[in-house]
C-alpha cells in the first residue's frame, strides 16, 4: 500500500499535571478521522517525544492505534539516541499494528553518512513495515544532499522521507529528480503549498491538528484535482496560520491554538513554556479566518 495524503504530526494531549491524557488522545484521533485525515504520525516533534519515557512512547503508540481502529494509517515516530532503542520502539510499533514508522537519526552527536546507513539498515532488517526517514537537519546537524537523501531508498524498508529542512530547492529536486527512488512528504508548514503543487505525495503536517478539514481540502485541490486557483484561495487563509506557528515554539503554538478553538490538548511539558497571551490572541484571529474556508 502506497501511503499518501495529509498525515497529522499528532500532538500528545497531557493532563494539567503533565501525565498522558488517554481519553484526550482518543478524542483527538477521532476528530482527525472524522475530518478525513489520511494518516497519523504520533510521537514526533509535535508529539513531544523528547520529554517521554520509553514506556510512555509505547503506551501512546498503542492508544493511537486503538483509537484509529484501522480508519487511518498510523506511523509512530520511533527514533531514539541509540540503534538498540530505535529497534525496540520500531518492533513494538509493528507488533502493535502500525503501518510504518518514522525515524529521526540520533541528534546529539551528528552521524556520518556511513553511520546513518548502518543505523537505518539495522532497523530495516528486523521490521517488515516501511520507514519514513525524518530529515530535520536543524535538530540533527545532519545535512544530506538530495542525492544522498534519495539513496536512502536503497536501504531495507526505507521508502519515504519527511522533509523538514525548510529548503524548497532541495525538496523540489527530490520531487522532480528522484520520484522513483524514494517518496517525499513535505514537513515544513509554510512550504506545503509549493511542495504539493510540485508533486509531493502528501504532507506530515502539524497544523492539521488545528484545521484538519481545511488541510484535507488543500491536499485535494492541489494533489488530486490539480485546481491551482482553489489551492491559492485556501492557502491564502492557511499560510498565515502556518507562519505564526513557525514564528514561535511550534509545539507550544499548536497547543495554544487548540486552546483557542476549545479543543485543549493540555499543557506542554517542561522545559517548553506556553506562548504569550498576545501571541495566542493573534493566532486565534488567523484560525477564525481559516475555519471559515
Could you name the key traits of this structure?
single chain; 293 residues; alpha/beta; TIM Barrel; 47% helix; globular
Outline the secondary-structure elements.
Layout: E1 5-9, H1 22-34, E2 39-41, H2 54-68, E3 73-74, H3 83-96, E4 101-103, H4 113-124, E5 131-135, H5 137-140, H6 146-151, E6 158-163, H7 168-177, E7 183-186, H8 192-198, E8 202-205, H9 212-224, H10 228-246, H11 250-260, H12 277-291
Would you kindly provide a written description of the structure presented here, covering whatever features stand out?
The protein is 47% helix and 11% strand. The chain is α/β, with parallel strands linked by helices and 293 residues long. It has a single domain, classed as TIM Barrel. An eight-stranded parallel beta sheet has the order 3-2-1-8-7-6-5-4. Helix 1 crosses helix 2, helix 9 packs across helix 10 and helix 10 runs antiparallel to helix 12.
Tally the structural domains: 1
CATH homologous superfamily identity: Aldolase class I
- How many beta-strand segments? 8
Count of DSSP-assigned helices: 12
3D shape: globular
The percent range for strand residues is 5-15%
**Mind telling me which CATH architecture this is?**
Alpha-Beta Barrel
Order of SSEs: EHEHEHEHEHHEHEHEHHHH
In the CATH scheme, the class would be Alpha Beta
CATH topology group: TIM Barrel
Average the pLDDT over all residues and give the rounded result: 97
User: Which structural category fits the helices and strands?
Assistant: alpha/beta
Ends apart, CA distance between termini? 31 Å
Helical residues, percent = 40-55%
Give the strand line-up of the largest sheet: 3-2-1-8-7-6-5-4
Low-confidence stretches: none
Radius of gyration: 18 Å
